[in-house]
Amino acid sequence: MKISIKPITRVLFCLAPLLLAVAVQFLVCIPVYGVSAIFTMVKYYGTGRTFQEIFNNLFALWSSSSFIIWLSMLSSIASLCIFGFWYRKKLARQQERVAARCAINLWMVLALFLLAIGLQYVTAYVTSFVGAVRPDWMRAYQDLMNSVSFDETVSPLMAFYACLIAPVSEEFIFRGVTLGYAKKALPAAAAIGLQAVLFGIFHMNMIQGIYAGLVGLFLGYLCETGGSVLIAMLFHAFFNFCGTFFNSILFYRTQQPFFFLLWLTVGVLLTYGGIFLFQHAVVVRDTRAACKNAANAHETQE
């Protein structure tokens, strides 16, 4: 049985964006950690402090939420520049079936917002179930969230990163470049599944990886159905916005059985309603565009 090497190579090439994104993170970390270490040494030079005390201060800096957020911000900006350029030069003409100014309408905005709220519930319940099965994964996830002060007042920097920089950067990486190349090697459904798995792996945390992979499926579907990575970016921003600011409101009294079942039902209904409304918005948008193109063609013939 002869095995075709080219399709396998194309599938393996879909891993390149993930590997490059991880490499970018490490390459950004090296100079940032180095510069911060030098400044800390200079700051405490001649103060009589021991090396252990200086190291403890340096470690406290590296562990602080502001440092982690700034480091994440720099990594995301670097990835945004690299993958945005890559996407625009190599894939945008094939992937972007509609112009950016026409990709989103009011119905679609409403659909994406409803879907973002619904998926907040769905992913939270999936996370709770996985955490009940694997408490060690949940502890690691909670430690990570605490390290960036997710349980405290959200800083403007954190909000800017979570709701703007991260969504744009990650969408270029996964729904832009990764999905674009995956579709060249696999059927659309398999390509969406592959990029979702890689999106989960990118988070390097089991709990985050599971719910990010689930969200990645919806993001891939939105991008493919809507014909623009801009749609995935907007939904990603809505999803992160809801998780950042509305978390305590959305999950009001979930410890009680009634509210537990209520919010689960609300989440499923909102998710279904968001998908239904999104499909309707795409049909309305494309129908209007087709009518406009037909009218323009008729005017040109006259």
Low-confidence stretches: none
Which class of secondary structure composition applies to the elements?
Answer: mainly alpha
Characterize the largest beta sheet: strand count, sense, and whether it forms a barrel: none
Strand proportion: under 5%
Task: Report the total helices.
Answer: 13
What is the string of SSEs from the N terminus onward?
HHHHHHHHHHHHH
Q: How many extended strands?
A: 0
Helix content: over 70%
Radius of gyration computed on alpha carbons:
22 Å
N-to-C terminal Cα separation, in Å? Answer: 60 Å
Report the average pLDDT across residues: 90
Shape: globular
What's the topology here?
Elements: H1 5-13, H2 16-44, H3 51-63, H4 65-90, H5 92-95, H6 106-133, H7 135-147, H8 156-185, H9 188-202, H10 206-226, H11 229-245, H12 247-250, H13 257-301
Describe the structure.
This protein has 302 residues and is mainly α. It contains 13 helices and no strands. The longest helix has 45 residues, at 257-301. The chain is globular, with a radius of gyration of 22 Å. The N and C termini lie far apart (60 Å).
Features:
302 residues, mainly alpha, globular
Write a concise synopsis of the structure shown.
This protein is an all-alpha fold. 84% of the residues lie in helices and 0% in strands. Helix 6 (106-133) runs antiparallel to helix 13, helix 8 (156-185) packs antiparallel against helix 9 and helix 9 runs antiparallel to helix 10.
